[in-house]
Amino acid sequence: MTALLEVRQLEVVYNRVATAIQGVSLEVPEGSIVALVGTNGAGKTTTMRAISGFLPSEDAEITDGEITLRGERINGRMPHQLAKAGVILVPERDKVFSTLSVQENLAFAGREGGAITIERIHGYFPLLRERGTQLAGYLSGGEKQMLAIGMALLCRPTLLLIDEMSMGLAPIVIKDLMEKLQQISRELNLTVLLVEQNAKAALSIADHGYVMESGRVVFTGKAAELMTHPDVREFYLGGAGQAENKSYRDIKQYRRKRRWWG
Ligand code: ATP
Q: What separation in angstroms does the CA of 46 have from each of 53, 56, 61, 149, 198?
């Protein structure tokens, strides 16, 4: 069966010279949550930009590979064309209109229809109803994220792309948001691709995970398996490797040496 989103051997170059990602392949099956994790500069945002059509605004282009949505090639389409096809991005920054109220933000995004109404968004995030008249710029980081997800849902996504949902948020807020996202995905059968530096948080709700490093996918598997894999744990989930900021490749080498020296 074809996955909803398929990325095959993707290569992206910035400013016509700098290759940011190379040979990146991933699949996002319908109704699933897939996590794309990795450290700073690994190429996660670039992959998201390629899928959502936002490369040209960064002077970047796809130089190789293919992206398909339900089997149809979508390489090089503009963001508004992709949004119409249901590919909706919650970006890393500038996700809400700060000078509009919460309800104005929702109304602006809103194409209510089917199962997704502002009423339903209020059901998921009651705080957005309570803060309806407040300017979005005065919301906390977690509240802005709720509003951004609400706005994205009102765009009626087939595929929801979320870039760094947990950035700058307290652990308890991250946990609540992740659980809410999992509930929303289940209830609406919504397909989600989640880009995160916080691998633990993302993998805890994902079905499948991909680990990126230096522009390539270095690891992939079921999220539950990645969570227990010794190398992934050591580097990404709070082991010694993470503290020393080693790369996944460094750890492989270190393990090999350790075996060699006994
Ligand atoms: P972060 O979590 O820091 O955003 P990331 O995994 O999302 O990291 P990218 O932002 O995709 O990584 O960066 C991948 C590579 O592309 C890096 O080498 C980065 O310097 C480069 N890059 C990213 N954005 C641009 C840009 N607008 N112009 C030029 N190079 C860029």
A: 10, 11, 10, 21, 17
